[in-house]
C-alpha cells in the first residue's frame, strides 16, 4: 500500500502512520507542522494545508489510497475556518483522488454529524439533524456527504465515525477535563448515569487500517458510514473518576442539571459572539449535551462489513493512559 495520510502528525493520524509503517507500507503525510517522529518512522512529510488544492494534489501523487484524517476540530470558532479545513479540504482531497486515479479513500468523520442533543442509545444508523449546534459538526457532516456521494466504480469511499478518541498523547479531551478537575472546576452534568461510547486511539487507528484493507469498488463497506468506537460504552462520570483516581486527580463532585448547563452554554456563546472574545467559552450547548446525555453507538455493521476488531481492551487502555499521564510533568 502506498498511502497518503492527511493530518498524519496529529493524535489519530500519527497512530495510523505508525501502523502502516510497521507493516511495511509506504506513507506520505500532508501536515502543516513539522513532526520529527514521522522521519523516525520512515514516512515522507509534505508540508501543506488541506485547504490548498495544489499542496494536496502534489502530496497525493504516486499514492493508491488516502486516509483523510486532517480537520479543524473544536466546539467554538469562526465558521469560515471550519469551512476552509473541513469542507474545502475534503473537496481538494476528492479532486486529487480523481486527478491521480486513486481508487480508495478512507475519511475520518465523527458521530457529531448525527448528534441532535438528546439521548442516542446503541445507534447503528441515524439521520443528519436539521440543524447542528456548532460549526464543527455541521462542516463534518457536509464533508461526509461529499465523500459518500463520491463513491463509485473508480473511487471507493468509506466514512468512519470514532467517538471521543482518547489515550496516551491525547491533546484535546483529557487535558481539558483534567485541568478542570485538578482545580475543582469540573461538575457532573445531569444525573451522572449517562453512558457514552469512547474510542481508544489504537482501536480507532486499527479500524482505519481494517477498513482500508476491505475497501474496493463494490465492496459491502463502500459508500457507507460506520461507527467505530470501542464495543461497550461506559458510564461517563464513574469512568472519568476511575481514570482520574489512577492519575491522582480528585474525583468530580457536585452536579448541575442538563437544562441549566445548556442555558449557561447558550449565555456564554452569546457573550463570546457579541464581544468577540478569544478562546472557547467555558460552556456551550453542545458540550453540555455531550456531558449530560447518553450517546452510544453500535459497531455491529463495521464488524460485519469490514471485520472491525478492536485490539486493546478497556482495562489495558486505562492502565496505559494513566501510566502515560503520570509520567508527564505537571505543567
CATH structural fold name of the domain at 2-166 and 199-229 and 298-311: Rossmann fold
Beta-strand residue percentage: 15-25%
Percent of residues in helices = 40-55%
The CATH class of the domain at 2-166 and 199-229 and 298-311, by name, is Alpha Beta
Strand order of the largest sheet: 3-2-1-4-5-7-12
End-to-end C-alpha gap = 40 Å
Largest sheet: 7 strands, parallel
**Overall outline:** globular
**Class based on secondary structure composition and strand pairing:** alpha/beta
| Alpha-carbon Rg, integer | 19 Å
Q: What is the helix tally? A: 12
Keywords:
331 residues, alpha/beta, Rossmann fold, 44% helix
Plain-language structure description:
Helix 1 crosses helix 7. The relative contact order is 0.14. The chain is an alpha/beta fold. Helices cover 44% and strands 16% of the residues. The strands form 5 sheets. It has a 7-stranded parallel beta sheet, with helices on both faces. The chain has a domain at 2-166 and 199-229 and 298-311: NAD(P)-binding Rossmann-like Domain (Rossmann fold).
Chain-wise SSE layout:
Blueprint: E1 2-6, H1 11-22, E2 26-31, H2 36-41, E3 44-47, H3 53-60, E4 65-68, H4 79-100, E5 104-108, E6 120-123, H5 135-149, E7 156-161, E8 165-166, H6 173-182, E9 188-189, E10 195-196, E11 199-200, H7 201-214, E12 224-227, E13 234-235, H8 236-247, E14 255-256, H9 258-275, H10 285-292, E15 295-297, H11 300-306, H12 314-327
Helix pairs in contact: 1-7, 3-4, 4-5, 8-12, 9-10
